[in-house]
């Protein structure tokens, strides 16, 4: 049976929900100017961007990988949360959540590393600690490949040699290892502190419990191809929960969907969840 796009029917299910989990992907941040690096937009300077997000790629060419992540850092530093981020952030605020789902609790699991969901949560409720799981880590974390020290670094640029490389359109430069980001403790080579392919995502045990308990899953802006996140919708559907997909186009996640809302997440999420008031930013200003 094809998934429904009936907003009122979805809101009826939402209102009866007790445990809501949202699984967010790159499509959520697209309207904030963060490249998705999948499909037609998957190239960075003629390189398959996804192939750069691996431990082997960093081992083979740390200069190229650091230029790719410097580009991403600079994009994220200049980005702000969009209406989709803010709609999900409102679900974390009990005063707003109880209006649309009086008995529910909400958890966000984001595959994004740009930190925009955290910013949105802090904007929605400055006095509360953000309640979300960044399953693939954080773009502004670094890890020393020598001593293992992990730190958050929002310097722009993170090291002088990378300055301006974000504007280049040709092939990556050959930057000396000694000029790449180094550890302040031991001078070892730093790597981006994100979870790469072939590495274990964060918070899997905690997220597993949330998914097991969820009776409603919101699948937002994800192609549903990267596991384990890609399997969460199936797990919720398997134990009798409802799955609603919000995406710009059809994806593999549609197979498990009871509801499907196609269109930009920054428009569909606020409208479907809260109605036109939030879609027009009257409940939570965007700036």
Automatic annotation (TrEMBL):
InterPro entries: DHS-like_NAD/FAD-binding_dom, NAD-dep_sirtuin_deacylases, Sirtuin, Sirtuin_cat_small_dom_sf, Sirtuin_class_III, Ssirtuin_cat_dom. It is found in: Mitochondrion. It comes from the Eukaryota. Belongs to the sirtuin family. Class III subfamily. Belongs to the sirtuin family. Class I subfamily. It is an enzyme of class 2 (transferase). Keywords: Metal-binding, Mitochondrion, NAD, Transferase, Zinc. The active site is at 136 (proton acceptor). Residues 1-287 form the Deacetylase sirtuin-type domain. It comes from Amanita muscaria (strain Koide BX008). One of its GO terms (cellular component) is mitochondrion. Its main location: mitochondrion. Zn(2+) binds at residues 144, 147, 183, 186. This is NAD-dependent protein deacylase. The keyword Transmembrane helix does not apply. Binds 1 zinc ion per subunit. GO terms for molecular function: histone deacetylase activity, NAD-dependent; NAD+ binding; protein-glutaryllysine deglutarylase activity; protein-malonyllysine demalonylase activity; protein-succinyllysine desuccinylase activity; zinc ion binding. It catalyses: N(6)-malonyl-L-lysyl-[protein] + NAD(+) + H2O = 2''-O-malonyl-ADP-D-ribose + nicotinamide + L-lysyl-[protein]; N(6)-succinyl-L-lysyl-[protein] + NAD(+) + H2O = 2''-O-succinyl-ADP-D-ribose + nicotinamide + L-lysyl-[protein]; N(6)-glutaryl-L-lysyl-[protein] + NAD(+) + H2O = 2''-O-glutaryl-ADP-D-ribose + nicotinamide + L-lysyl-[protein]. Its cofactor is Zn(2+). In contrast to class I sirtuins, class III sirtuins have only weak deacetylase activity. Difference in substrate specificity is probably due to a larger hydrophobic pocket with 2 residues (Tyr-69 and Arg-72) that bind to malonylated and succinylated substrates and define the specificity. SUPFAM superfamilies: DHS-like NAD/FAD-binding domain. NAD-dependent lysine demalonylase, desuccinylase and deglutarylase that specifically removes malonyl, succinyl and glutaryl groups on target proteins. Has weak NAD-dependent protein deacetylase activity; however this activity may not be physiologically relevant in vivo. NAD(+) binds at residues 25-44, 111-114, 221-223, 247-249, 265. Its EC number is 2.3.1.-. Substrate binds at residues 69, 72.
